[in-house]
Queue: 4 jobs
Job 1
Amino acid sequence: MINNYAFRKFKNRLFFVLCLACVVIAIVPLLSILYEVIARGAPQLSWEFLTQGPGTIGVSAGGIGPAIQGSLILIGLTSLIGIPVGILSGVYLAEFGNNRYASAMRTVNDVLTEFPSIIVGITAFSVVVLTMGSFSAIAGAVALSFILIPVVARTTEESLKLVPNSVREASLALGAHKWRTTLSVVLPAAKSGLVTGTLLAVARIAGETAPLIMTVLGNTYFFQGFGQPMDALPLRIWRNALQPYPELQAQGWGAALVLILIVLALNIGVRLASRGRFRK
Amino acid sequence: MNSKENTEKSYTEQMRPDVKMQSIGLNAWFGQKQALKDINLTVKANAVTAIIGPSGCGKSTFIRTLNRMHELVPTAKMSGQVLLDGKDIYADEVDPVQIRRRVGMVFQKPNPFPTMSIYDNVAAGLKLTGAKKGKNLDEVVKRSLEQATLWEEVKDDLKKPGTSISGGQQQRLCIARAIALQPEVILMDEPCSALDPIATAKIEELIVNLKNDYTVVIVTHSMQQAARVSDFTAFMYLGQLVEFGETSGVFENPKNELTEKYITGKFG
């Protein structure tokens, strides 16, 4: 009897320790990456590094200004295209998606969510780059939108489904039309889920590299126009990592840190801005 | 064509001025399951009509056909007519949105809009339907909350979330939200089932007062509540209307054996 109890207690302990061990295994690499990036990237940060274009090898290392500018433009342009389309698709799936067409769309959407990003890049390359005849910022934003839209659509649908039906009925019973109910009652009720889901999606596209290789290409100049090639942080990190020069590799670490900081700042900023009166 | 016109006309003629709503040969289904069978019932104007019956007898389905909320359930179907002031609310040219504007509804569980303040909840009907033009919102909100006997309790907290007050207050808020639109009929689907006795007493008092201005149809599980607040009582069982009449008659002298068994607590 006693033995049995001791054994059960031991199993309980064992289970707890196993869970803890898994958490440690998951977190250690993350922390070590973060540590490396900060330790190697932080010394790079300076006003010049953030604002200047790349310098000449041997003369001055210069900075990653164009890459920062390019990434911000890409994030903005992609959000502009992807977030409205994604949210409206999600609204359709959640509020009007009670038919066979929508369930087919849902399946396709789920497949797109897991699509290899290099294929998205090739798609944007053949659709936009070849048509326009040049690598361009627009092509990059289109490629990133392909990645953003399904994720935003999915999270929108999930957040809207969490809104209790009684809230919709309350609005419809007042004589409000369906679109008005969706816009003024359901979407605000799902706001925190929407914001979180959208942010995660934007953070994901901010770090995408493969589609950019095929679309914005990367260069060393500041913004030249939406129809022109452009630099971006993930591209800069990737190219610098391939360089034999230690200064450029060090710059890559700095660029990595900046990218992480941008995603973090986006996160905190949007969260603060969208903090409503009725936040729980 | 001709016969349809004739029947419509005869229904209209049948309608006495004190009859607000009437269901004629009303059937309703959820998928294959028939929830209402041939319901013929009249709702008198400026009176409280109570619908009682055991769970699953179709009470809620019935009142949801009165403002076309029934059809929002994906598998729902219905047949028959529901007249509001003598006109069929299921006629082709009728937009359900207009019907719901005239026939308001209070639900079983209080469901104030979670993202809106108390004030905005009451004003929501006017804002969502674009009916606020030329109206003094402050006045409408105050009057509706007063009619719902909630004004004194919340007048200093109008900016607080609608979900921050107690369950009983929330239900009165929902009633205020419904009457802010000044509907002609108010449907209540077991409005007190989630409330304690004190909150219930307040809402019952409110229901009795509401009939001065509105026609009220209330679904209730509590026979005592039906006896206390209603002028007419309908007893439903298994999707059928078993008995309907003045409340005193139904409770003191039921004509149907089933009704008698139910109100004396032998089943249900």
Note: Residues 67-279 of chain A form a domain with the MetI-like fold fold (CATH 1.10.3720.10).
Job 2
Amino acid sequence: MSEFRRGFHEALQHIASDRAAKSVLVGAIILYSFFYPAPYRSQVASHLPVAVVDLDLSPMSRGLVRNTLAVRALDVVELGNSFSAARASLEDAKVQAIMVIQPDFQRDILRGRQGQVALFGNGALLAHGSAALGGFSDALGAFAQDAAVVQARFAGAATGPVLKLVRRPLFNTREGYGSTVVPAVAILIVQQTLLMGIGLVIGTMQARSGRLTMPPTRVLGMSAAFGVLGTLSLLYFAGFVFWLQDYPRAGDLTGLGVTTLLFVGAVVAMGLVAASFYRTRERAFQLIALLSLPMFFLAGVSWPVSAFPTPLAWLAKLLPSTAGITAMVKFNQMGARVGEAAGELWTLALLVVLYGGLAMWRYGPSALALPVFPRRRIQ
Amino acid sequence: MKRERTPLVNKKHLIRAHEFYEKYGPKTVILARFVPIVRTFSPFVAGIAAMSYATFLLSLTLPAVILFGLTLSVTAAFARELRDRTAATWLTSSGGELVPAVIGKAFPYLALFFVQGVMSVLWVALATGGGVRGSIPLLVVAQALMYLGYAAIGLAIAGAMRNMATALSFVSLYAGTTLAYSGRTFPVNGADPFVRVWNLLLPFTSYVKLQAQQLDMGAPASASLAHVAALMAFIAIPGAIGLRLYGRAAREPASWGE
């Protein structure tokens, strides 16, 4: 037990006496918890600049323009009758989408046909383009309701739809972008800061006195120290940040607790294995920071893991963030029970065993047989 | 009895819309949306290929990863001279002149990441997209300018922090969050002033605007000149500040952190 306590104290002492370690393990968590959600505060895209080209100039086309002006997602910054001018603005990125109301728009509707509207979104900016087109679609939907009444008056029969589709999003009920991305990234932030913090502490030790070897209980003690910090960070996000930002919260406490322990355990063990290779204190920053973006994409948030090529899907499984993010989102945002994330929890448990075993081997007596790093003078 | 025209698809209108697209269409992309009474057309209807998610995501993330790698490497290279207390020897060995020494140190990294950057953009264009629709030389120049800008910022960060670990932490914050603040995955139009200012302080913001114009949209070169000017400013201003800060730091060994 004393070796365990020694490892625990040693790790905490190193962190407390190292400004860089404190700033990455504590400061970065707090800083990123405000810095990262900031761009997504508005949740739903709004005020996207668009152009409207009215080639009909009829009372009905003006009615459609008025509807467009009223949509929150859009800012109609250009209103004219030249498509080439609107297109030049699109290429200049002054507008994100164009609506062209075709000539004879009113005549067609009054004759009981369909009015012609062409929509152009900027495909180079997929998110902006589709949000702007969604805004146009809202305006068109509202206009069509009114136009149907007018048309019915002329034609004598309403041509309204027989089926109306109503969409009700589950879990992320406001369909907010921040609510989708930030809870996932929060888990990744915890993983990355832990990996960097462990790398910094062990890297500094190894830079000072060469390859580190220690008994298994001391490895466990160190793991416990980093584990406590990781658990606190994770609970800070799940318990405070998600509440502050008003992201969906459906915390199943049992699931949250089990996932936290397994996820933090897997990350700490992986961090210790990686750190055993560092000879300088800064190595972790260069390596782990750069891997953040690939790790995020491997987690399957922006593109599902099931659609990955097989080797990438296996690589993704080796990262605690992949199963960790899925399980955490299930418990925190979707209100799942423990059994409903069993697959992810088993994956995390296997990662704890895998990386835990590797860590014991890397710091164990057999490590002496491995090449020993030369000492480096540190001022 | 004469066959009635179906009320939903009016062929004459479809042809008219098709002509409209043939005339104006293929460089921009539209999503199909159908609203009764009002018919909306899209290139899917008119048979024009759409922008793929892969092109969109890869043309955004590959430069973001590469510029992050470059900034980390360059900052580390400058900060390492302070950490290892070798700055004086290094500067003396390069004739005591700061500017050529700094350029010489950054050059191999710039060359390596620039080649990777250009290759990745061309690969995205050829493998997933419809090729480069605008000017390839302009894209290549913009890549070079962007990496130079990030190298200049790395120099300034190394000079300001005087500590390798802190400098690399700051690089992670600044260059590692590029995508979140780029306004590409989620628009910054409705965001807080802080976000909009931070967005403008990233060379990547100017670069991706130019990339969208020259890679995807086929805009005239003149439309991209403002972005080229902005990218140059990102080299000149942080470069001047960086040389000053780093030069001062190099002369004050007592201030170097571990």
Note: The mean pLDDT of chain A is 85.
Job 3
Amino acid sequence: MILNAYSVLAAFAAALRLLLGLLVLSLGLRRRRADEGEFYLLFTLSVTLVGLAVVSWPLLYLVLQSYVPEWPRVMCIQGVTRIGAGSLGAPARLPLLLDLLEITKPLLLFVAGGWFVLHLANRADRTASLSGRVLAVLLGAAALAAADGGLELAYLLIPKGEKFLSVGCCTFSTLTGGDPASATGALGLPPQAPPWLTPAYFVATFAAVAALFLRRRAAALAATLVAVPVTLLFLRDVASPAFLRLPFHHCTYCMFKDAPESIVAVSLFATGALATGWAWFTRENAPLLHAARFGYLASMLMMAVRLLIPR
Amino acid sequence: MRPRTRIALALLGLLPLAADRLRSPEGRCSYDGARTSPAFRVRIDDRRFCGVRCAQAWLRASGVTPRSVRVIADGREIDARAAHFVHTFSTWGDGSPDEIRAFATLEEAQRRVQAYGGTILTGAERPFGEEHAAD
């Protein structure tokens, strides 16, 4: 384990998520027999779990960023994500663990947020008719939190003694597959953004905004499901070269590090996507739809302004 | 749309513009944005690169035919065509961006290879084209 303030904090938060997730699972599964005291305990633990789920996402990237100086020729998180590749034993699992964490983090945030939205709707309902759904979603969030905590703990604890990165520059690794064989040859051209990517991003996001304005939840969700993968590609191949003013540098991590305003744009997009999804958990969803509209619009505006600034 | 929302949208729209004005690319590699070290810097026309590999990659990607390529060799900037390049095996701890080193003289390059291993790049292996006498 690489010991620094971020990794210790992340390990503590991950252990807490694992424990709280298991505790909420066990309490939730015997909820029917629970007394009033246990209900409040369950609620308090669940709120703590949601808080931890929110904090753990940026914390993971702070940990990865703090690892960058550990390897002399790693220049960003992209390099850290490749540590362990090609090695034997447990370190070989490090890239897979990180890939899984990059899926469980947003998923956990989505499910935990969904539970919170459902809980608020249930509390406003005199008959508490949503209690069954609240509990079911909570159990899902708890299971996911425990899995996420376990995965992160494993990632943090596995030794990262590998000193032989094929190449340090994140761009070269992406382009050449990290082939160190030749110093002068095999430098592939950067992956140019396909011409459809920028229109696809704006069309998909605009479709989501239009559907939200028209209060067509199904259409908004469908547009979001298209917009999310398109946006991930757009961020790497269009937004990062534009934000960094480096036409051949396609690295979202470098964009976040060197152009922090991009974090605002991406957070707004995430707000749009998550709020669109959360709106499905309840019928009283006007504030969520408003937040989703605002998130999408603001994110799209920031991207458009960035692309229009002359180089 | 409420006025408050419009103002928030306008402010967020201005954010990339403001951030772009505040940021300076000085001292950054024109290919990957890494900080350039004076010991390994490569200059193609008015662009700076952290090392030989970044400069090569930029040339290939941009398709530009450079007017001049200058590298740091033995502490001074010289024309790349006059430099001798070594593909070294020893890069740890020297803050180098890649494994190519430039030397002003063949003797210096040979000394490096004898001391630390590696190969002197010749012919088509040479970065930035064939060897010429310095201008």
Note: Residues 3-22 of chain B form the longest helix (20 residues).
Job 4
Amino acid sequence: MSIHDKKYAERIAAQFAKYPTKRSAVMPLLYIAQEEYGWISPEAIQEVAELCNMDSTQVKSIAGFYTMYSEKPKGKYWLQVCTDLPCALRGADEFYEELKAYLEVEDGGTSRDGLFTVEHVMCLAACDKAPMLQCNFHFMENLDMDKMKAFIEEKRAEAKKHEE
Amino acid sequence: MSDTVKIYIDDKAYDVPAGMNLVDAAKMAGNDIPVFCYHPKMEPVGMCRMCLVEMGSIQKDRASGEVLLDDKGNPQIRWFPKLQTACTTNVSDGLVIRTNTPQVDQARENVVEFLLTSHPLDCPICDKGGECPLQNLTMEHGPGSSRMVYSDKLKLDKHVPLGDLIFLDEERCIQCARCIRFQDEIAGDDVLAFHERGRSLQIITNSDPGFDSYFSGNTADICPVGALTTADFRFGARPWELTEVPSICPHDAAGSNISLSMRLDRDHGGRAIIKRVMPRQNENVNEIWISDKTRFGHHFTRDEHSRLLCPLVRRGGNFNETEWKTALEYAANELQLAGGSVAAIAGSGMSNEDLWELRQLVTGLGGERLGAWPPTHAGADLVAQVGVGQGTNLGDLGKGDAVLIVASDLEEEVPIWRLRIKQAHDRGALVVVMNGRPTRMDDFASTVIHYDYSKAAGAFDLLQKEHGDTARQLTGAKNLVVIAGAEGVDLAGSRALMQAAANFLIESGHVGKPNNGLMATFPGANGMGQYYLGFTPEATQDIIANPPKVLFIAQADLLFDDPAAVSWLKQVETIIQLTLFAEEPVPGVTAALPIQSFAERDGSFVNGERRVQRFYTAQGPIGQALPAWQVLNRLGVQLGLGRSKLSASILMNEIAQSIPAFAGITYKALAHVEPQFPLVGGDDVYYGGTAYRNKGGLGVQIPAAADNGGAVTKGKVEKPAAIKASGGQLLVVPATRLYNRERVFRSSELVHPRVPDAYVAMNAADARKLGIENGDMVSISAGGSTLKVRAHVNGAAPQGAVILPRHLSDTPAPLAITAGEVSKA
């Protein structure tokens, strides 16, 4: 596994083509790396640094600054629930507590099956559709626990099938 | 900066250079604006907000340009509604600032209070305590008492090793980014960065090894708090206990000005030892920076275990400790028996005064041959001819200027020059690097030319024939400096290369002016001194070819440098060795006489820019060691060759009378200082950091022959036969590594983790042919020695050559490039 894999070559080349220097493509490449590894692993940092011809310290610094890069291993599904005030008024905080209880995790934790990581985040700009979350940066809106349970079990079943 | 503008600080008018940074301008006007993040050597960022001032400008009529006056006839000032950061402002005509108003006082107090909210206040155990900008500015501007609850302070890791040499205390860091910016803007090794943000922000390094830079120690100097400390000085002493002694770095041709911080030490029998080495400002030489080798390579001066403590003489088969009197009588006797067949080989760490006395003694006895060690770099005479002009300052090079670096891995050979040329490159200078392999300098070069090592001596032919555009850019530059090394050439090749370099400069008229001319990366601190005092590598070659009866080996580690030394030294009847170290005596040596290190005595070196610089006595002698000049003088007196001399300064007077280059140079002249900009080393450590103000002298630059309108002519380039590898052989190219296992560096244990294991770099294609894989042990037979080292198969070596770093294993690498066999061990 590596972002040097052929499957990313085209996308990486496309990113480099957008900018005057390789260095400028560091952020899109970090996203690709995160897609590959599920998080910004030390190997990912090294690989992106080599590709962008930067010192790996600078790449790590960028990964650390932006919250959408995760420097900790994550489950396959990264659920970020907005619990800011407008969402909370629509019950997002209760929803979040129930979600954690259902997955048996703490804030920021990963479920035992390794599939789901949940954390609360600041405003995602979809207050009118709360409770909402983003799953691997895709919005899921107007949620309740029933919908959520269905989603979780579906993914669990998928994973199980995949294993077999 | 010829134009000046009028600015007003606290209602007083000052004329200051146009466009200057306001903090600098105020400083020159005697008004210290407090800063944390601003540093006069770096671009301002306005992060800490400590330099807030009231700012305004005098209003002028737009049409007529006349100053508008108010009702009372005073100029109208338009004030900014809020305080402004002085550090992000460049002065312009009519700028008005106030630094002493209640509003400014309030702002300063608030900024200090804010910084202290999460600062641990552990000054009593902090290395910076006593010379700490935060401490000083808190005393001056701080609130006096805290409104914070102590137990609420952020508790963070206080012992984070960023590498082997620098420790980070996360609690103390005020996040000014000075260290990050230094590494990026000045050193060019951007291995530090911020990680996370807000309250979680921290300094990190992700390089391998951590904080991988030869300049890391400087970050501890400019850190405005005790967040960055060096492994050497950490918990070592309090700044106010230290006595500062001006000195000169003994390791390389830059001649960095340093300050030795001395203190009596319990662990060393109550003697004064060097507690730390700090930069001493000399804007023409090292500015306020030093390399980590300069900073952390001083431990041999105190190491009683490795130093030779008393004279040794061989009688019969025994090598016995003895008294000076006996040893000198014995040596004198041997010298008398030599009947004039006396010669000397002197190392490049010997001071001018030592070399002078050695010369007096050898010539007094009828000897003629004075050899310079190591005999690797030729052409010091050409540096004396067309070396960089008087008043040269690499810090002045910029747009329109050019630097050519040839046959040198500058970062490893003279790191401070590499640092300064990196900055010249940033300012717009054209930097051209020519070598047989990639080096770190390539990162800071506009053009990189790689040549075949077998043609290294003819690099300038290649430049002119095949890279005409680059050659024309160089010759057409406003100022041109050529820095030549001797990598990939033997002594004859080095001479040819230096002559070609000199011709190149003479042809294009880049000689006899400041910031123009030739520099060479002579090993050791006094390569040019060797030349001026008559010691040459050619004489060394002659000594090797026809050994004398009696040979002086002074401060030179022949056996560690040259694999051939063992055999030719056998032909010398009597060897008298002057040495610092106990393990060093050459087999068969007749007398080994202990001499003092640079820290124990005074003297002078001539750096690669021909600047004669003086160092001062900092500590007492180790054992019975004497200054080399004194040993030689006593020996001379014993032989009836002159009078006893009492001090190094008297010797300098003699040198000045006899050697034209030194005319007019006295210790007093060498100690002369002039104000330098930026003003560092005062009580305001917050401005420039803890580099010391120069109180020991800026040195005197010997004029080159081409200076003051002197005529110089081109010389003939006598190109030696190309060194070729044939029949399965490869070219073995010895190279320099900054961190190595040389004797003077071996006592500095804290740097040992950074000294690479002995290795050879080879090309993948060559390795494949020889069945060698990365990490294999290989055997290299070249130049009369066989080394077993690990192979690094990578792009560091061109095809057909292997790069063999010197001084990494106990078996010496060949002195110069040669063909050799490489095989899997």
Note: Chain B touches chain A through 13 residues (CB under 8 Å).
